[in-house]
Each structure stands twice: as C-alpha cells, then as structure tokens.
Specification:
CATH class of one domain: Alpha Beta
CATH topology of one domain: Leucine-rich repeat, LRR (right-handed beta-alpha superhelix)
Strand content: 15-25%
Order of helices and strands: EEEEEEEEEEEEEEEE
Distance between the termini: 45 Å
Shape: elongated
Number of strands: 16
CATH architecture of one domain: Alpha-Beta Horseshoe
Structural class: mainly beta
Low-confidence stretches: 307-322, 329-348
Number of helices: 0
Helix content: under 10%
Length: 348
C-alpha cells in the first residue's frame, strides 16, 4: 500500500488484502487499485473522505481483476468518480451506486442489463464499456451530459437519451438508423465510431450541434439541409469519398477535415465563406479542383494531412496559395501514393 499524502492519492498495485478504512489517512481522497485486487467492498471499508475509486494502474486504460457484486452501502456517499475495472461484470441493483456519483466508467467486459434506478440521478458522465443490451426509457438519468457507447449496437429508440445530453460518442459497433427526434435537442458534440455507415435523414441532427465527427467507414452522400446550420467543426472520417456541392456544408462552418481518401471534385462554392481551416488528404487531386470560386477568402490555414511535398503546390488551384495562409504538413501517415497529382505524396 502506497500513500501520497501531498497529492491525496493512494495506489495499491499488488494489494493482497481488503481495504481497511482505519488504515487510509484522511488526507487521501483518491484510491487507485490494480492488478490483483478482487475483494468485496463491505459497508464501512471505504471511508467517507474518499471521492474517487479507480480500479486500474495510474495512467493506464486497462487494469484490475475486480469482479465482485456491490451492495447498498459498499460505496460511501462521498464518491463522485468511479471506474470498476475491465473485469467487472456484475448487476448494478438500484440505489447501490451512491447519489453523490457524477462520473462512472465501466469496462469492456461489462454487459449486464440496467434497471430503472441503477444509475443515480446525480450522474453527469457515463462510459458504458462493453454494454450492448437494448436500453429502455428511464434507465439513463436526466442529469447526464456526457455519454459514451463503446460496443452498443442496438437501435436507439425515442426517449432513451436524456434531454440534458451535450456530448455523445456513439462507439465502434453502432451502425443503426437514427430517427428524427431521437438525438436530444441540446446536443453539441456527436462522434460516430468505426462501423457507422448509415444514411442520415434531414432533421435527425439537432440544430444545437456544433461539432460532428464521422468514423472510419462512413461514406454516404451529404445532401443540402442534412447538416444543421449550427455546426462549426466537421470531420468527415477516413473513408468519405462523395462529391461536395454548394449548400451542403453549413454557412457557420469554421473547421473542416476531409477524408484522406477523398478524390472527388469540390464544386464551386462548396466551401462556405465562414471556413477558417481545412485539412486535405493524400488522395485529393488538385487537377479536379481549379475553379476560381472554390477557396473562400475567409480561409486562414490549410493542413495537407499525412503528406510531405517536395514542392509546395502553388498550382493547386487556378491561383496561388494566398500568402496569409498558415500552411502546415502533418507527417503522421499516408494511406497511399497520390496518383496523377501535382505534388509528390509519401509517408515518413
């Protein structure tokens, strides 16, 4: 058992006995357990000055052997943040989790159905781990503002997501239609995962949305009116390779990340006059994009994603790159050699 009084953290890496409240100094507010800890949390084992329990090694995403049932009183009402480790897969009965809890992270092996009241009404941030059962109305508390689905693949029915939700990460297994009215009206940030490749209906994305990110497989046409006018940041993911015509991208857009596989012409006025930054991938062919009305005057920076250039492509469009552009190059990776382009693209 290792205590760090100055930081309020106690780390137990190879603890071979259960926690004992009398051995935990009052200066400790966070307990991190890892590797071999798999003891029951009995009522009174954890003192009421503890606010955070994290069953994983500090700095690591994975960890912990803990897989014991929790009962009412197992956790004190001082706990605000809880991660039960990757192995935890026990039913969470109503009122077991304390009503002080604001953040709950469940591991990849968790896949137990919730009951109404399993998740406390104080909860603001929830990571559902491996959960993949159909949610029903009333399960997710109305206090929730940040929700992550990791492996959830079920259709999201109406009245499942609370209206309080601001940030929603859909997860890598989800590939279902999203009906109009399903997403909460105040949602600001929406991130789709790896598998999502389903057409969206006009009106499915709420007018409150400011940030939208697509995942690896998304490659569906975007139509006029699909993207709400509130969006300021748009990431089209890895596989998107559809033409972009004028009026598709919202006039509020400030930042646009094009797919590294995009090799379609950008139509005149496709890029809105509000745009400040654009990121372009290796497959983008400047020979297809020479219209003088392509680049808005508002553009302040451009990133040639995953590319190196022997010569900066001043002939990329029908006019030279303006001097006021902040041009940067991201060297992280390059999916393929650009064919027929006006520059050489290579991985580094």
């Amino acid at each position: 058992m290792t205590g760090h009084g100055s930081t309020g953290v106690m780390v137990d890496t190879y603890l071979q006995q259960r926690l004992i409240a009398s051995q935990i100094p009052e200066s400790i507010t966070t307990i991190m357990l890892s590797t071999f800890y798999n003891w029951d949390f009995r009522p009174g084992d954890i003192p009421d000055h503890i606010t955070k329990i994290w069953i994983a090694e500090k700095g690591l995403v994975h960890g912990g052997s803990f897989n014991r049932p929790l009962v009412i009183g197992s956790l004190p009402h001082s706990i605000t943040s809880l991660y039960l480790g990757e192995e935890f897969n026990q039913t969470l009965e109503p009122h077991v989790l304390p009503h002080s809890l604001k953040e709950l992270k469940l591991g990849k092996k968790f896949n137990m159905q919730f009951k109404v009241g399993s998740l406390p009404s104080s909860l603001a941030k929830l990571d559902l781990g491996g959960f993949d059962h159909q949610l029903i109305p009333g399960i997710l508390p109305s206090s929730l503002t940040d929700l992550t689905f990791n492996f959830y693949s079920q259709h999201i029915q109406a009245d499942i997501l609370p209206t309080s939700l601001i940030t929603f990460r859909v997860g890598d297994s989800f590939n279902e239609n999203i009906d109009v009215g399903v997403l909460p009206p105040f949602l600001r940030s929406l991130t789709f995962g790896f598998r999502f490749d389903t057409s969206l209906s006009t009106g499915a994305l709420p007018d409150s949305l400011t940030e939208l990110k697509f995942g690896f497989q998304f490659n569906r046409p975007l139509t006029i009116g699909l993207l709400p006018s509130s969006i300021i940041s748009l990431d089209l993911g890895f596989s998107f390779n559809q033409p972009l015509i004028g009026g598709v991208l919202p006039t509020t857009l400030l930042s646009l990340i094009l797919s590294p596989n995009l090799n379609q012409p950008l139509h005149p006025f496709a890029l809105p006059s509000s745009l400040k930054h654009i990121q372009i991938g290796c497959s983008f062919d400047p020979k297809l994009n020479r219209d003088k009305n392509l680049i808005p005057d508002s553009l302040a920076s451009i990133t040639f994603h995953n590319s190196t250039f022997k010569n900066m492509p001043n002939n990329m469009f029908s006019h030279s790159i303006p001097e006021h552009w902040n041009t940067t190059i991201d060297h992280s990776w390059c999916p393929q050699q650009s064919q027929g382009s006006d520059w050489n693209c290579s991985s580094t």
